[in-house]
Amino acid sequence: MFERLLAAPPYSLRQAEKEALLLAGLNELARFHYDACPDYARIVDAAWGGPRVYRAIEDVPFLPVGLFKERELSFAPPFRRLSLREAAAIRATGADEVLA
What we know:
Strand content: under 5%
Low-confidence stretches: none
């Protein structure tokens, strides 16, 4: 999604190129969240009339930070605590380095 933008050496892209890459990534990200998170979809439907391909960065739906304190805007299931046995199994495989 943002690979080309992040892989480019500093100052190698013109502002218009950076904005075009950013806009493409934001469009992809907005659509992903719309499809994956019902609460986000309801907000976009109510405030922006549904999803679309945005033609300018300022048109992409930006949500106030306070919304994340009031609502569970996530497409992932909630985290659960691991049992001691599960935690020990993760440590034994070395997978805890990935989780750090």
